[in-house]
Design a protein that fits this description.
The protein is α+β, with helices and mostly antiparallel strands. It has 3 helices and 3 strands.
Length: 83
């Protein structure tokens, strides 16, 4: 089919289907959260460990971590609010 050939020829990228899950942060997420926070201010000195601890203290009340469904290790995002 000519239409299928056009689709295959014009694409240098493969499509990847990913389902994300927004879950409560847990202690095992500490290092992933810290890494996100450390990169947030592009190397500026600040207490990313302390902020990660604050996010974990609020787990279940405020905030989520974003992971791929059925994979529990890697974080793809952090959503939270601190007061």
């Amino acid at each position: 089919d000519e239409e299928e050939e056009d689709d295959d020829e014009g694409s240098d990228f493969d499509e990847l289907q990913v389902d994300f899950d927004f879950v409560n942060p847990k202690e095992a997420d500490f290092h992933g959260i810290k890494l996100f926070l450390k990169n947030l201010l592009d190397g500026a000195e600040w207490d990313s460990s302390g902020v990660a601890d604050l996010i974990l203290e609020q787990a279940g009340q405020v905030g989520s971590v974003i992971k791929v469904v059925d994979e529990d290790e890697d974080l793809y995002g952090v959503v939270s609010a601190l007061s």
